[in-house]
Design brief:
The protein is built from 20 helices and 21 strands. It is α+β, with helices and mostly antiparallel strands. The protein has a seven-stranded mixed sheet with strand order 4-7-2-1-10-13-12, with no helix packed on it.
Length: about 625
């Protein structure tokens, strides 16, 4: 079967240049017994002015949806439709024939039910939750999983407001990436409630989000609550207390916050990402709960997405760096304003190592290390890495230094947000606006030596490295050098006070630097553990790097804690590299595969699929 994906978006079947989704209303019931959402979606569509009159068929993206009826909402007239055979991870094309009388707009109602294997949803039994009393449901639609939740134009190029009525057991709280619009009981016996939501700001489909569980909240600011199971909610409220300050700082940088609420939800450990910037309700991993607020900068990242990503959006996933590169850059701007400019530079230095590691793993000639990769026929999940984050933010840092510094470039950022808010754009659109804003500098030749082709379309590390302030990194570099150069018979020189004056982030940087060196000897691993008490650290970033050092050194004592770490949480940033390290060592290879197969059903669909590929486990 010949499959044609949209020329607008290589991961979507839809054709928004003809018919575009302009509004969505969901009327769904949560069924934990069948692990499905069932009900209807009212899809409002509008035809482009220049689309002509010939094509009266609407194409939507779906994946494993059980569609029972499609009809025009106002007239109730049934509409002819067809669902093509699924194509790889992209799902199936749903084509709907509109009545001949439809001119420029209409609303289609689709009655449907999700599949128990819906890739956007994870269903947890009570035993898999902290409270072990109630079941739990949460979604993750980025990048192309919204089509398994609702028939839609699953492309970031298409933005629309949405409303929803969600029916759920009365014992559960329901939240969405929208404003709560009231709750009332559905049944006389009070066993079910309908939760109403409204998202008035147009968003792309990947930002639709839903969660249902035994949730409680705490106020941590005038616009912010933190939500979690009660076992973690107070700890989370402490951890993220600085959220209101970060939000205000972001507004000072980029302009008004348009989403009204900024709530945080700490999800169960199986959540596959550090955070997800769902509007009005950021999802975060419990691996951020270090107890000392040392990992709360992830919240600064997700707050920044409220402008760069959610308000101004990449047109398709080939231009993902427009979302993530700008967001990392703004996140570090926030850190710089709150804690000092040296902290912004230190964060960039720290993550430079992650970029080196990713390029080494994929190969410095890998097309997926392009800042703007060709993703025709490629699942965006397979392309996901730190490249658009770090290579993209490095480009912005480099340009800031070229145009004259922070104040000048921040003016560009504010103008960029104003120009493209509520829109989606490509890299070419971004570059044209950059040149327009800095026309005087273009005429002065400031950009003449910028190799745009290398930045955007060549693999490997960035062609330029900005001039970073290394004042916070120097102590880490010096300690790494001491360990690397030390003879195994001269390890008594290392003492606990080596790191007592370091912050958690500096300890993380020290370990990251060691990971770039040849594998440590077993003697050094034993001494590191003994002197610095690294096994006792609760900081997940430190634990992750410590375990990687051990596995690379073939330090047997690292196997059991590494297995425990990949089992007790499902954050891909940690799980995938550790599983790859376990798989690369003959001693732990089979154990890694067995452990994955035993716990695969507990993992999020996205994590499980990616780890299966890493471990070469046949589906």
């Amino acid at each position: 079967m010949a499959v044609a994906l949209s020329p607008e978006d290589p991961s979507s079947f839809s054709r928004p240049e003809i018919w575009s989704l302009s509004g969505l209303h969901l009327n769904l019931a949560i069924d934990f017994a069948t692990k499905t959402l069932g009900g209807s979606a009212d899809i409002s569509i509008v035809k482009a002015q220049d689309a002509g009159d010939a094509d009266n068929s609407v194409i939507l993206d779906t994946r494993d949806l059980n569609i029972s009826r499609v009809y025009e909402k106002e007239s109730g007239q049934d509409l002819r439709y067809s669902v093509e055979e699924p194509y790889s991870s992209f799902g199936s094309k749903l084509e709907i024939q509109l009545p001949a009388l439809v001119d420029r707009s209409t609303t289609i109602t689709i009655d449907y039910k999700t599949s128990p294997s819906c890739t956007a949803l994870q269903w947890l039994t009570p035993e898999q939750t902290a409270g072990k009393r109630q079941p739990y449901l949460f979604s993750q639609c980025q990048a192309i999983h919204a089509r398994s939740l609702v028939p839609c134009q699953d492309s970031p190029a298409v933005k629309f407001p949405y409303t929803a009525n969600i029916t759920a057991p009365v014992e559960l709280e329901v939240l969405m990436s929208a404003l709560k619009d009231g709750t009332f009981e559905l049944s006389e016996d009070g066993t079910q409630k309908i939760h109403k939501f409204n998202q008035p700001v147009p968003i792309p489909s990947y930002l639709i989000a839903i969660v249902a569980g035994a949730l409680e909240s705490r106020d941590i600011g005038p616009r912010t609550k933190v939500w979690s199971e009660k076992e973690f909610v107070d700890k989370a409220a402490y951890e993220f207390e600085e959220t209101k300050t970060m939000l205000q700082t972001a507004e000072d940088l980029l302009g008004p916050y348009v989403w009204q609420r900024y709530d945080l939800l700490v999800l169960p450990p199986s959540f596959p990402y550090g955070g997800m910037e769902n509007p009005c309700l950021t999802f975060v991993t419990p691996t951020l709960l270090a107890g000392d607020r040392s990992l709360a900068d992830v919240v600064a990242h997700e707050i920044s997405h409220s402008w760069t990503g959610n308000l101004v959006t990449n047109k398709n996933w080939e231009h993902f760096w427009l979302n993530e590169g700008h967001t990392v850059f703004v996140e570090r701007k926030i850190l710089g304003r709150l804690y000092g400019e040296e902290h912004r530079h230190f964060s960039a230095i720290n993550k430079w190592k992650d970029l080196i590691d990713e390029v080494d793993r994929r190969g410095d000639d890998s097309p997926l290390t392009h800042l703007v990769p060709d993703l025709k026929g490629v699942d965006p999940d397979d392309a996901f890495s730190c490249v658009p984050y770090e290579k993209g933010s490095t480009l912005l840092f480099y340009l800031e230094q070229k145009v004259g510094g922070a104040e000048t470039f921040e003016a560009f950022l504010r103008a960029y947000i104003e120009q493209f808010k509520y829109k989606a754009l490509t890299t070419e659109d971004w570059k044209k606006f950059l040149f327009s804003f800095f026309q005087d500098k273009v005429e002065a030749g400031v950009f003449d030596d910028v190799d745009w082709e290398a930045w955007f379309h060549r693999p490997g590390m960035p062609p330029k490295r900005p001039n970073f302030d290394t004042s916070l990194a120097d102590i880490c570099t010096a300690l790494c050098r001491r360990w690397s150069d030390a003879d195994d018979n001269a390890l008594d020189q290392f003492i606990q006070s080596d790191i007592t004056r370091m912050s958690s982030k500096q300890v993380t940087e020290f370990l990251s630097l060691l990971l770039l060196e040849p594998a440590l000897s077993l003697s050094k691993m034993v001494k590191l553990k003994e002197v610095y008490k690294l096994n006792e650290r609760n900081n997940s970033e430190i634990k992750f790097r410590w375990l990687r050092l051990g596995l690379r050194a073939h330090y047997a004592d690292a196997i059991a804690p590494a297995m425990q770490f990949v089992t007790e949480q499902g954050r891909m940033k940690f799980v995938r590299p550790l599983y790859r390290d376990l798989y690369a060592w003959d001693r732990s290879k089979e154990m890694a595969v067995r452990n994955f197969m035993l716990h695969r059903h507990e993992m999020h669909n996205i994590s499980a699929e990616m780890v299966a590929k890493d471990l070469q486990v046949n589906e």
